[in-house]
Amino acid sequence: MWWYYRPDGAYEKCRCCCCQQEFHPSHKRFLPFPLAGQNRNPNEVGNRLCLYDGGGNCPMLSLEHIVIFHAYDSMPQARYEQEIQHTYFGFHRTSPASAVGIAQEGFRISTTGRQMLGYGVYFARSFKGTERKARYSGALICAEIQMGNVLPVTYDTLDSVSNSNSWHQNFDTVYYYHQEEDRDEFCVKDPEQILKWIIIMDDDRLRRYGLHTAFENTFCGCI
Question: Is residue 190 in a domain?
Answer without folding.
Answer: yes
